[in-house]
Amino acid sequence: MSAKSPEDRILAAIRAIPHGQVAGYGEVAHRAGLPGRARLTARILGQNDDPALPWHRVLRSDGRIAFPEGSKAFHEQSQRLRAEGVKVENGRVKRPRKADDLDAALWGPGSR
DNA sequence: AATTTGACCCGTC
DNA sequence: AGACGGGCCAAAT
Q1: CA contacts within 13 A on the Cβ side of A12
Q2: Which end of chain A is more exposed for a tag (fewer CB within 10 A), N or C?
Q3: Cα radius of gyration rounded to whole Å, chain A
Q4: pLDDT tens digits for A34-84?
Q5: Which nt sits closest to A36, CA to C1'?
Q6: Alpha-carbon distance A108 to A60, whole Å?
Q7: For chain A, which residues make up each domain, given as ranges?
Q8: Is the pTM of this model over 0.85?
Q9: Structurally, what CATH architecture does the domain formed by A6-107 represent?
Q10: DSSP secondary structure code for residue A100 in this structure
Q11: How far: A61 CA to C4 C1' (Å)?
Q12: Kind and range of the H or E element at A93?
């Protein structure tokens, strides 16, 4: 029997974020079946040890990066997001519209 | 054991 | 857009 703990669900929800897309902490928590536990998601992300975990796809609700501007993690996350076709401007992330998504699919990674 | 802190969120001003 | 207050939970002090 699978007695999944909240952590496992949160991690699963984060891993479920598709390439080129982003989700908020609360969104991930809600998706994991834990509404209102956004802080739990944050804590788990800080404790996670999985390098394969797309932590860079997790942002605040405002679409802002959770790290202080100028921080190394901040820069890394923004760069990683850009590499996936997500527009990042001044620490703010713009959700890819259809046109942008198509553009990213054509000119983004994997395409030549 | 109580208080503070933390990769947060929401409603309201 | 930014500021305030309240809520949430677990680890750290």
Answers
A1: 11
A2: N
A3: 14
A4: 888 999 999 999 988 888 999 999 999 989 999 988 888 999 999 999 998
A5: C8
A6: 24
A7: 6-107
A8: yes
A9: Orthogonal Bundle (1.10)
A10: H
A11: 18
A12: strand A92-94
